[in-house]
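Moderator note: this is an archived Q&A kept for reference. The question asked for a predicted structure of one protein chain; the sequence and the answer are reproduced below.
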Amino acid sequence: MRRHGWLALGLLAYLGLPSLLVQRLGLGLIREGRQGERVVALTFDDGPDPRTTPAVLDALREAGARATFFVMADRAEACPDLVRRMLAEGHEVGSHGARHRHAWLRSPWGAWRDPGAGARRVSKVAGRPVRLFRPPHGGYTLATVLGGRAAGLTGAHWSVEGGDWHPRATPQRLREHLGASVRPGAVVVLHDAGPGARVTGPGLPGVLADLRARGYRVVPLGELPGAAPLRPSDVPRRVMGGLDAVLDRLGGVRPAGGRADNLFRVGRVRFPLAGVRLADGTPLPPGTPAAEFHVNNPLMVDLGLRRSLRLARDDFREVASDLTRRPELRDAQVIFCLSALSPLLATLGFETYDLPPATARRLRRWANLLRRAYGSPPDAPEPKLSVMGRAAFLERYGERGEG
Protein backbone atom coordinates (compact mmCIF):
# COMPACT_ATOMS: atom_id res chain seq x y z
CA MET A 1 0.00 0.00 0.00
CA ARG A 2 2.80 2.37 0.90
CA ARG A 3 4.60 1.51 -2.33
CA HIS A 4 1.47 2.25 -4.34
CA GLY A 5 1.10 5.54 -2.51
CA TRP A 6 4.61 6.64 -3.41
CA LEU A 7 4.00 5.56 -7.02
CA ALA A 8 0.83 7.64 -7.21
CA LEU A 9 2.62 10.62 -5.68
CA GLY A 10 5.45 10.26 -8.20
CA LEU A 11 3.04 10.12 -11.13
CA LEU A 12 1.25 13.20 -9.81
CA ALA A 13 4.52 15.14 -9.62
CA TYR A 14 5.81 13.91 -12.98
CA LEU A 15 2.62 13.97 -15.09
CA GLY A 16 -0.32 15.45 -13.19
CA LEU A 17 1.06 18.74 -11.93
CA PRO A 18 2.82 19.70 -15.19
CA SER A 19 -0.37 18.85 -17.09
CA LEU A 20 -2.51 21.01 -14.79
CA LEU A 21 -0.19 23.91 -14.02
CA VAL A 22 1.75 24.19 -17.28
CA GLN A 23 -0.35 22.68 -20.07
CA ARG A 24 -3.79 23.70 -18.76
CA LEU A 25 -3.15 26.88 -16.79
CA GLY A 26 -0.17 27.91 -18.91
CA LEU A 27 2.13 28.71 -15.98
CA GLY A 28 5.53 29.71 -17.35
CA LEU A 29 4.31 29.61 -20.96
CA ILE A 30 3.35 32.26 -23.49
CA ARG A 31 -0.27 31.54 -24.41
CA GLU A 32 -1.87 34.90 -25.22
CA GLY A 33 -1.31 38.65 -25.28
CA ARG A 34 -3.26 41.67 -24.08
CA GLN A 35 -6.72 42.23 -25.50
CA GLY A 36 -6.36 45.98 -25.80
CA GLU A 37 -5.37 45.84 -29.48
CA ARG A 38 -6.74 43.82 -32.38
CA VAL A 39 -3.58 41.82 -32.90
CA VAL A 40 -3.30 38.02 -33.09
CA ALA A 41 -0.50 35.51 -33.54
CA LEU A 42 -0.97 32.62 -35.96
CA THR A 43 1.33 29.70 -35.27
CA PHE A 44 1.97 26.64 -37.43
CA ASP A 45 3.23 23.27 -36.23
CA ASP A 46 4.77 20.09 -37.71
CA GLY A 47 6.53 21.47 -40.81
CA PRO A 48 8.19 22.32 -42.95
CA ASP A 49 6.82 20.12 -45.74
CA PRO A 50 7.62 20.99 -49.38
CA ARG A 51 4.17 19.73 -50.41
CA THR A 52 2.11 21.97 -48.12
CA THR A 53 4.20 24.69 -46.42
CA PRO A 54 4.70 26.81 -49.58
CA ALA A 55 0.92 27.35 -49.90
CA VAL A 56 0.80 28.61 -46.30
CA LEU A 57 3.72 30.95 -46.92
CA ASP A 58 2.13 32.19 -50.15
CA ALA A 59 -1.14 33.00 -48.37
CA LEU A 60 0.65 34.88 -45.60
CA ARG A 61 2.72 36.86 -48.11
CA GLU A 62 -0.34 37.82 -50.17
CA ALA A 63 -2.10 39.05 -47.02
CA GLY A 64 0.92 40.93 -45.68
CA ALA A 65 0.79 38.78 -42.54
CA ARG A 66 3.66 37.29 -40.55
CA ALA A 67 3.47 34.23 -38.33
CA THR A 68 5.44 31.80 -36.17
CA PHE A 69 6.44 28.33 -37.38
CA PHE A 70 7.28 25.63 -34.86
CA VAL A 71 9.34 23.27 -37.00
CA MET A 72 10.52 19.71 -36.48
CA ALA A 73 14.30 19.36 -36.42
CA ASP A 74 14.48 16.57 -39.01
CA ARG A 75 12.10 18.34 -41.38
CA ALA A 76 14.00 21.61 -41.03
CA GLU A 77 17.23 19.80 -41.88
CA ALA A 78 15.57 18.19 -44.90
CA CYS A 79 14.07 21.51 -46.14
CA PRO A 80 16.52 24.29 -45.21
CA ASP A 81 15.31 26.44 -48.13
CA LEU A 82 11.82 26.61 -46.61
CA VAL A 83 13.24 27.64 -43.23
CA ARG A 84 15.30 30.34 -44.93
CA ARG A 85 12.22 31.52 -46.81
CA MET A 86 10.27 31.77 -43.53
CA LEU A 87 12.93 33.99 -42.04
CA ALA A 88 13.44 36.06 -45.20
CA GLU A 89 9.70 36.86 -45.30
CA GLY A 90 9.68 38.07 -41.70
CA HIS A 91 8.30 35.01 -39.97
CA GLU A 92 9.52 33.65 -36.66
CA VAL A 93 10.91 30.13 -36.31
CA GLY A 94 10.63 28.08 -33.12
CA SER A 95 11.36 24.47 -32.29
CA HIS A 96 8.73 21.72 -32.21
CA GLY A 97 11.28 19.23 -30.92
CA ALA A 98 13.56 16.57 -32.29
CA ARG A 99 10.87 13.85 -32.45
CA HIS A 100 7.12 14.23 -32.90
CA ARG A 101 6.08 12.12 -29.95
CA HIS A 102 3.94 13.06 -26.95
CA ALA A 103 6.04 13.65 -23.85
CA TRP A 104 3.92 11.19 -21.86
CA LEU A 105 5.07 8.42 -24.21
CA ARG A 106 8.77 9.16 -23.80
CA SER A 107 11.30 8.17 -21.18
CA PRO A 108 12.17 10.90 -18.67
CA TRP A 109 15.63 11.17 -20.22
CA GLY A 110 14.18 11.45 -23.74
CA ALA A 111 11.63 14.06 -22.65
CA TRP A 112 14.32 16.07 -20.86
CA ARG A 113 16.75 15.93 -23.78
CA ASP A 114 14.30 16.64 -26.63
CA PRO A 115 13.73 20.42 -26.15
CA GLY A 116 17.43 21.30 -26.19
CA ALA A 117 18.39 18.82 -28.91
CA GLY A 118 15.60 20.00 -31.21
CA ALA A 119 16.36 23.69 -30.65
CA ARG A 120 20.07 23.24 -31.35
CA ARG A 121 19.37 21.46 -34.64
CA VAL A 122 16.77 24.01 -35.74
CA SER A 123 19.10 26.88 -34.76
CA LYS A 124 21.82 25.42 -36.93
CA VAL A 125 19.51 25.34 -39.95
CA ALA A 126 18.14 28.81 -39.26
CA GLY A 127 21.57 30.32 -38.69
CA ARG A 128 20.34 32.06 -35.54
CA PRO A 129 19.37 31.04 -32.01
CA VAL A 130 15.90 29.58 -31.50
CA ARG A 131 14.30 30.61 -28.22
CA LEU A 132 10.67 29.44 -28.48
CA PHE A 133 9.68 25.82 -27.94
CA ARG A 134 6.36 24.03 -28.30
CA PRO A 135 6.44 20.30 -27.56
CA PRO A 136 4.51 17.91 -29.82
CA HIS A 137 0.78 17.97 -28.97
CA GLY A 138 1.55 20.71 -26.43
CA GLY A 139 2.19 17.93 -23.90
CA TYR A 140 4.37 18.33 -20.81
CA THR A 141 5.96 16.18 -18.15
CA LEU A 142 8.26 17.40 -15.40
CA ALA A 143 11.20 16.31 -17.56
CA THR A 144 9.92 18.40 -20.48
CA VAL A 145 9.61 21.49 -18.28
CA LEU A 146 13.07 21.06 -16.77
CA GLY A 147 14.66 20.19 -20.13
CA GLY A 148 13.26 23.32 -21.73
CA ARG A 149 14.53 25.50 -18.89
CA ALA A 150 17.95 23.89 -18.98
CA ALA A 151 18.15 24.72 -22.70
CA GLY A 152 17.15 28.35 -22.08
CA LEU A 153 13.90 28.01 -24.04
CA THR A 154 10.57 29.74 -23.53
CA GLY A 155 7.53 27.51 -23.82
CA ALA A 156 4.73 28.60 -26.14
CA HIS A 157 1.20 27.26 -25.98
CA TRP A 158 -2.01 28.63 -27.53
CA SER A 159 -5.35 30.12 -26.53
CA VAL A 160 -7.31 29.13 -29.67
CA GLU A 161 -7.04 25.71 -31.29
CA GLY A 162 -7.88 25.70 -34.97
CA GLY A 163 -8.84 22.02 -35.03
CA ASP A 164 -7.61 21.67 -38.62
CA TRP A 165 -6.40 18.14 -37.81
CA HIS A 166 -9.92 16.83 -37.07
CA PRO A 167 -11.21 14.27 -39.61
CA ARG A 168 -14.39 16.32 -40.16
CA ALA A 169 -12.56 19.65 -40.55
CA THR A 170 -12.94 21.53 -43.83
CA PRO A 171 -11.54 24.87 -44.99
CA GLN A 172 -14.97 26.50 -44.57
CA ARG A 173 -15.46 25.06 -41.07
CA LEU A 174 -12.00 26.27 -40.10
CA ARG A 175 -12.88 29.75 -41.32
CA GLU A 176 -16.17 29.76 -39.39
CA HIS A 177 -14.57 28.37 -36.24
CA LEU A 178 -11.80 30.95 -36.16
CA GLY A 179 -14.27 33.70 -37.00
CA ALA A 180 -16.16 32.81 -33.84
CA SER A 181 -13.18 32.02 -31.60
CA VAL A 182 -10.48 34.58 -32.35
CA ARG A 183 -10.19 37.53 -29.97
CA PRO A 184 -7.55 40.23 -29.50
CA GLY A 185 -4.31 38.80 -28.14
CA ALA A 186 -5.14 35.25 -29.23
CA VAL A 187 -2.45 32.72 -30.08
CA VAL A 188 -3.88 30.36 -32.70
CA VAL A 189 -2.41 26.92 -33.40
CA LEU A 190 -2.66 25.54 -36.95
CA HIS A 191 -0.57 23.12 -39.03
CA ASP A 192 1.44 23.60 -42.20
CA ALA A 193 2.25 19.88 -42.43
CA GLY A 194 0.55 16.61 -41.53
CA PRO A 195 -3.24 16.01 -41.54
CA GLY A 196 -4.07 19.61 -40.62
CA ALA A 197 -2.35 21.01 -43.69
CA ARG A 198 -5.05 19.64 -46.03
CA VAL A 199 -7.46 22.09 -44.35
CA THR A 200 -5.23 25.02 -43.38
CA GLY A 201 -3.59 25.47 -46.79
CA PRO A 202 -6.85 26.01 -48.72
CA GLY A 203 -8.61 27.75 -45.81
CA LEU A 204 -5.93 30.22 -44.80
CA PRO A 205 -6.60 32.92 -47.46
CA GLY A 206 -10.21 33.19 -46.27
CA VAL A 207 -9.18 33.24 -42.61
CA LEU A 208 -6.71 36.04 -43.27
CA ALA A 209 -9.26 38.02 -45.29
CA ASP A 210 -11.76 37.76 -42.43
CA LEU A 211 -9.20 38.91 -39.86
CA ARG A 212 -8.21 41.87 -42.02
CA ALA A 213 -11.87 42.84 -42.54
CA ARG A 214 -12.36 42.89 -38.76
CA GLY A 215 -9.35 45.14 -38.22
CA TYR A 216 -6.87 42.53 -36.97
CA ARG A 217 -3.13 42.53 -37.56
CA VAL A 218 -1.35 39.17 -37.72
CA VAL A 219 2.13 39.18 -36.19
CA PRO A 220 4.71 36.65 -34.99
CA LEU A 221 4.35 35.50 -31.41
CA GLY A 222 7.41 37.48 -30.37
CA GLU A 223 5.68 40.73 -31.47
CA LEU A 224 2.27 40.06 -29.89
CA PRO A 225 1.57 42.93 -27.44
CA GLY A 226 1.66 41.73 -23.86
CA ALA A 227 2.72 38.18 -24.73
CA ALA A 228 4.92 36.92 -21.90
CA PRO A 229 5.27 33.76 -19.84
CA LEU A 230 2.38 33.42 -17.41
CA ARG A 231 3.44 34.29 -13.85
CA PRO A 232 1.84 33.04 -10.61
CA SER A 233 0.30 36.51 -10.17
CA ASP A 234 -1.47 36.07 -13.53
CA VAL A 235 -3.13 32.80 -12.52
CA PRO A 236 -6.22 34.38 -10.83
CA ARG A 237 -7.13 36.13 -14.09
CA ARG A 238 -6.70 32.87 -15.99
CA VAL A 239 -8.81 30.98 -13.45
CA MET A 240 -11.59 33.60 -13.53
CA GLY A 241 -11.67 33.43 -17.31
CA GLY A 242 -12.09 29.67 -17.12
CA LEU A 243 -14.81 30.01 -14.48
CA ASP A 244 -16.66 32.51 -16.67
CA ALA A 245 -16.55 30.00 -19.53
CA VAL A 246 -17.96 27.22 -17.34
CA LEU A 247 -20.76 29.40 -15.97
CA ASP A 248 -21.62 30.57 -19.48
CA ARG A 249 -21.98 27.00 -20.71
CA LEU A 250 -24.16 26.06 -17.74
CA GLY A 251 -26.36 29.12 -18.19
CA GLY A 252 -26.65 29.11 -21.98
CA VAL A 253 -24.77 32.41 -22.20
CA ARG A 254 -23.06 33.04 -25.53
CA PRO A 255 -20.93 35.85 -26.97
CA ALA A 256 -23.04 38.40 -28.79
CA GLY A 257 -22.98 37.81 -32.53
CA GLY A 258 -21.33 34.44 -31.89
CA ARG A 259 -17.90 36.12 -31.75
CA ALA A 260 -15.51 35.81 -28.84
CA ASP A 261 -14.21 39.36 -29.40
CA ASN A 262 -17.58 40.98 -28.65
CA LEU A 263 -17.70 43.03 -25.45
CA PHE A 264 -20.93 41.33 -24.36
CA ARG A 265 -22.28 37.84 -23.69
CA VAL A 266 -26.01 37.23 -23.65
CA GLY A 267 -28.35 34.58 -22.26
CA ARG A 268 -32.08 34.09 -21.70
CA VAL A 269 -33.40 34.32 -18.14
CA ARG A 270 -36.57 35.15 -16.25
CA PHE A 271 -36.44 38.67 -14.84
CA PRO A 272 -35.35 38.12 -11.22
CA LEU A 273 -36.50 41.27 -9.39
CA ALA A 274 -39.81 42.50 -8.02
CA GLY A 275 -41.27 46.00 -7.99
CA VAL A 276 -39.53 47.34 -11.10
CA ARG A 277 -41.44 49.61 -13.45
CA LEU A 278 -39.82 51.22 -16.51
CA ALA A 279 -39.91 54.98 -17.02
CA ASP A 280 -42.72 54.62 -19.59
CA GLY A 281 -44.85 52.88 -16.96
CA THR A 282 -44.32 49.31 -18.16
CA PRO A 283 -44.26 46.93 -15.15
CA LEU A 284 -41.64 44.16 -15.01
CA PRO A 285 -43.02 41.42 -12.79
CA PRO A 286 -40.64 38.65 -11.70
CA GLY A 287 -40.47 35.92 -14.33
CA THR A 288 -40.81 38.23 -17.34
CA PRO A 289 -38.87 36.71 -20.29
CA ALA A 290 -35.63 38.68 -20.48
CA ALA A 291 -32.16 38.79 -22.01
CA GLU A 292 -29.36 39.30 -19.50
CA PHE A 293 -26.00 40.50 -20.75
CA HIS A 294 -22.59 40.21 -19.14
CA VAL A 295 -19.39 42.08 -19.91
CA ASN A 296 -16.34 40.36 -21.40
CA ASN A 297 -14.19 41.21 -18.37
CA PRO A 298 -10.67 40.57 -19.75
CA LEU A 299 -11.42 42.61 -22.85
CA MET A 300 -12.87 45.51 -20.85
CA VAL A 301 -9.93 45.55 -18.42
CA ASP A 302 -7.39 45.69 -21.24
CA LEU A 303 -9.33 48.27 -23.24
CA GLY A 304 -10.13 50.61 -20.34
CA LEU A 305 -13.46 52.33 -19.79
CA ARG A 306 -13.17 55.00 -22.49
CA ARG A 307 -12.36 52.60 -25.31
CA SER A 308 -14.88 50.08 -23.96
CA LEU A 309 -17.60 52.72 -24.22
CA ARG A 310 -16.79 53.30 -27.88
CA LEU A 311 -16.78 49.57 -28.58
CA ALA A 312 -20.02 49.05 -26.65
CA ARG A 313 -21.99 51.26 -29.06
CA ASP A 314 -21.01 48.98 -31.95
CA ASP A 315 -21.20 45.67 -30.11
CA PHE A 316 -24.71 46.36 -28.87
CA ARG A 317 -25.73 46.12 -32.52
CA GLU A 318 -24.77 42.44 -32.39
CA VAL A 319 -26.80 42.07 -29.20
CA ALA A 320 -29.79 43.59 -31.01
CA SER A 321 -29.30 41.15 -33.85
CA ASP A 322 -29.21 38.26 -31.37
CA LEU A 323 -32.57 39.36 -29.94
CA THR A 324 -34.15 38.72 -33.32
CA ARG A 325 -32.05 35.78 -34.56
CA ARG A 326 -31.58 33.54 -31.53
CA PRO A 327 -34.82 31.57 -30.96
CA GLU A 328 -34.49 31.58 -27.17
CA LEU A 329 -34.29 35.40 -27.12
CA ARG A 330 -37.21 36.21 -29.41
CA ASP A 331 -39.69 36.50 -26.53
CA ALA A 332 -37.37 38.58 -24.31
CA GLN A 333 -39.30 41.69 -23.25
CA VAL A 334 -36.34 43.51 -21.68
CA ILE A 335 -32.57 43.43 -21.74
CA PHE A 336 -30.72 44.06 -18.50
CA CYS A 337 -27.48 43.79 -16.56
CA LEU A 338 -26.77 43.61 -12.81
CA SER A 339 -23.41 45.29 -12.36
CA ALA A 340 -21.34 48.18 -11.09
CA LEU A 341 -21.25 49.64 -14.61
CA SER A 342 -24.54 51.51 -14.38
CA PRO A 343 -22.99 54.99 -14.99
CA LEU A 344 -21.44 53.77 -18.24
CA LEU A 345 -24.62 51.95 -19.29
CA ALA A 346 -26.73 55.01 -18.49
CA THR A 347 -24.86 56.92 -21.21
CA LEU A 348 -25.91 54.14 -23.60
CA GLY A 349 -29.61 54.56 -22.90
CA PHE A 350 -30.23 52.18 -20.00
CA GLU A 351 -32.43 53.05 -17.04
CA THR A 352 -30.87 52.55 -13.60
CA TYR A 353 -32.54 51.16 -10.49
CA ASP A 354 -31.29 50.23 -7.02
CA LEU A 355 -31.07 46.57 -6.10
CA PRO A 356 -32.30 44.93 -2.91
CA PRO A 357 -29.56 45.33 -0.25
CA ALA A 358 -28.80 41.60 0.00
CA THR A 359 -28.47 41.27 -3.78
CA ALA A 360 -26.29 44.39 -3.96
CA ARG A 361 -23.95 43.06 -1.25
CA ARG A 362 -23.61 39.69 -2.96
CA LEU A 363 -22.88 41.23 -6.34
CA ARG A 364 -20.42 43.70 -4.86
CA ARG A 365 -18.46 40.85 -3.25
CA TRP A 366 -18.35 39.13 -6.62
CA ALA A 367 -17.30 42.36 -8.38
CA ASN A 368 -14.46 42.88 -5.90
CA LEU A 369 -13.31 39.30 -6.41
CA LEU A 370 -13.19 39.95 -10.14
CA ARG A 371 -11.29 43.20 -9.62
CA ARG A 372 -8.66 41.42 -7.52
CA ALA A 373 -8.30 38.71 -10.16
CA TYR A 374 -7.76 41.30 -12.88
CA GLY A 375 -5.37 43.43 -10.85
CA SER A 376 -7.70 46.33 -10.01
CA PRO A 377 -8.30 47.81 -6.53
CA PRO A 378 -11.15 45.96 -4.76
CA ASP A 379 -13.42 49.00 -4.40
CA ALA A 380 -16.23 48.32 -6.86
CA PRO A 381 -19.08 50.85 -6.92
CA GLU A 382 -22.50 49.78 -5.70
CA PRO A 383 -24.04 47.35 -8.23
CA LYS A 384 -27.36 48.42 -9.75
CA LEU A 385 -29.89 47.24 -12.28
CA SER A 386 -29.42 48.62 -15.79
CA VAL A 387 -32.42 47.82 -17.98
CA MET A 388 -34.05 48.76 -21.28
CA GLY A 389 -37.24 47.56 -22.93
CA ARG A 390 -36.93 45.39 -26.02
CA ALA A 391 -38.55 47.90 -28.38
CA ALA A 392 -36.41 50.77 -27.11
CA PHE A 393 -33.22 48.69 -27.42
CA LEU A 394 -34.01 47.62 -30.98
CA GLU A 395 -34.93 51.17 -31.89
CA ARG A 396 -31.56 52.40 -30.64
CA TYR A 397 -29.26 49.58 -31.74
CA GLY A 398 -31.15 47.40 -34.23
CA GLU A 399 -32.01 47.72 -37.87
CA ARG A 400 -35.14 49.64 -38.80
CA GLY A 401 -38.26 47.57 -38.63
CA GLU A 402 -36.96 45.01 -36.13
CA GLY A 403 -38.98 44.26 -33.05
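Archived answer notes: The domain at 27-228 is CATH 3.20.20.370 (TIM Barrel).
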